[in-house]
Design a protein that fits this description.
Elements (H helix, E strand, L loop, with lengths): L40 E4 L2 E4 H8 L7 H26 L6 H19 L8 H20 L2 H22 L1
Antiparallel strand pairs: 1-2
Helix pairs in contact: 2-3, 2-4, 2-5, 3-5, 4-5
């Protein structure tokens, strides 16, 4: 006896609802019911959901506005410019002290940003702060010309500010 072949047509297969996704599985998002493949799924404790549903779920926790992003960028830029100028100007020849002073100044900048945005959360706050601090450090390089001291300050202060924001969020 031979087993009968199961012939499936294109109409019977379930394809993922996202574009450019070659996979076809029997998975469906338990929240929305749309078909998903393993590439487009996010595992949760109770099942798989689509990436769109996971993003919508995470959006409830982010309550920042565009003006808060601008405030965070201005505080990060100006705080880095002012503290970096004084730290590199006065301690540039003692560059090893910047290993200890840079994180303290970065923590102060991170706290100022956190209070400036009124303790709100944003999906892109870290990227805005990093970009503003890097831009301020580039300007400081052209003003001071001390690459070693500025590099130490830039790395330690930016890392500390981002760590402070991460803990706060």
């Amino acid at each position: 006896m031979t087993t009968p072949e199961i012939i499936t047509t294109e109409e019977e297969r379930i394809f993922c609802h996202r574009r450019n996704c070659p996979g076809s599985t029997g998975l469906r998002c338990y929240q929305t019911g749309v078909p998903i493949c393993m590439k487009c799924s996010v595992q949760t404790p109770v099942g798989y959901i689509s990436k769109d549903a996971a993003k919508d779920r995470a959006d409830r926790f982010f309550n920042i506005s565009v003006s808060d992003y601008v405030v965070a960028a201005i505080i990060a830029f100006m705080g880095t410019l002012i503290t970096g100028f004084f730290a590199v100007s006065f301690l540039g020849f003692l560059w090893f002290l910047l290993i200890f002073i840079g994180p303290a100044l970065g923590g102060v900048i991170g706290e100022m940003i956190f209070r400036g945005i009124r303790r709100r959360r944003g999906r892109y706050t870290r990227q805005i702060v990093i970009g503003s601090m890097v831009a301020a450090n580039i300007i400081l390089f052209f003003v001071t010309g001390n690459l070693l001291a500025l590099g130490i300050f830039a790395f330690t202060a930016t890392s500390a500010a981002i760590a402070r924001l991460q803990v706060a969020l």
